[in-house]
Structures are given as structure tokens and as C-alpha cells.
Automatic annotation (TrEMBL):
It comes from Johnsonella ignava ATCC 51276. It comes from the Bacteria. Keywords: Signal. This is DUF4367 domain-containing protein. Residues 1-24 form the signal peptide.
Length: 176
């Protein structure tokens, strides 16, 4: 009987160790490969810049309905939206979000600038920026991954200040 208990205990410990090793080998399901993402982004930037300089990209500006803000769309010759810049103005901040539509995911950068005082306080002097925050996210298969300590980690949508999560939401915001 003691041998059976020892065997079962050893078997259980081995199963736990094997499960841990398998999970670490195939990666954490809450993270995505940052190196592949960076490579895709750099490749996208290169092609985008080249096409923009060759005037192969159309730029369209539209106001956001119901907000003080605008959307700038960058569209290629095949009528595919490659990038959108969303700018939302607030009393004491300005949020600029860039959406890059790369393969099967969306790479999003967000620059939030906080003013030292509300814009309407004084129109005669330039607005000073008290501080800025910069965030990077990936939207992939309906999930949002935030760049944390050099890795894209799955995060809760409520924890992110991302204004839109898809091209459809952006189009709806500008009445398209």
C-alpha cells in the first residue's frame, strides 16, 4: 500500500512538472511575440513611408461626431486603410492615437499630453504641457495586449484608455 501511495505521489509531481514545462515551451497565452511584432512594424513603416513619398497614399481628414477631435485616414491605391490618426482634445489634455493596420492585428500608439491649465483659460498664451504619457498596444483577435516591460501582455480593456478598438468603431465615430 505504501508503494502505491509513493508511486501516486511521484506520478502527481511528475505530471505537474511536465505541465509546467509544456506551458513554458509554448509560451504564455497572455503574451505575444514582441520581436515578430517589432519586425512587422518596422517593415510596415518602411513600406508606408515609401508609398507616402511616392504619393501612393491618399490622406482624408474627418471630424469626430460628438467630440472635439478629428480622424486622419491614410488610404492606399486599393482603397485599404493603412493607418488612422485619432486626435481628441479635452479641457486639460490632448490624446493622439495612431492605429496601424498590419496583417491580422492593429498596432496602436497613444500619446497623452496633459496641459498645465485648461485651454480655454487663456487663449493669448501658448499652452504648456505639464507631462506626457506614451503607450503601445496590439489589438489581436478581439483582445488587447499592452506593452509592459518590453513584452506585449494581455490586458483588460477597462485598464486602457484606448478610444476605439477597430476600424469599424473609428468609421462609426466619423459617420461613415
Amino acid at each position: 500500500m505504501k508503494n502505491n501511495i509513493k508511486f501516486l505521489s511521484l506520478f502527481l509531481v511528475l505530471c505537474i512538472l511536465i505541465t509546467g514545462c509544456v506551458n513554458s515551451a509554448f509560451g504564455d497565452s497572455k503574451k505575444i511575440n514582441t520581436e515578430d511584432i517589432r519586425s512587422n512594424i518596422n517593415e510596415f513603416y518602411g513600406k508606408f513611408s515609401d508609398d507616402y513619398l511616392k504619393e501612393k497614399i491618399i490622406v482624408v481628414n474627418k471630424d469626430i461626431i460628438g467630440l472635439d477631435g478629428e480622424v486622419i485616414k491614410y488610404i492606399d491605391a486599393n482603397n485599404k486603410v493603412l493607418r488612422c490618426t485619432v486626435i481628441i482634445y479635452g479641457e486639460s489634455e490632448k490624446l493622439t492615437s495612431d492605429y496601424y493596420f498590419i496583417e491580422d492585428y492593429i498596432y496602436v500608439t497613444m500619446l497623452d499630453e496633459y496641459y498645465t491649465y485648461p485651454i480655454y483659460y487663456s487663449y493669448n498664451r501658448p499652452v504648456d504641457i505639464m507631462y506626457r504619457t506614451f503607450e503601445e498596444e496590439i489589438i489581436y483577435e478581439g483582445m488587447i495586449y499592452e506593452l509592459v516591460n518590453g513584452e506585449f501582455v494581455k490586458t483588460n480593456i477597462k485598464d486602457i484608455k484606448i478610444p476605439y478598438t477597430s476600424l469599424q468603431e473609428i468609421n462609426k465615430a466619423i459617420g461613415e
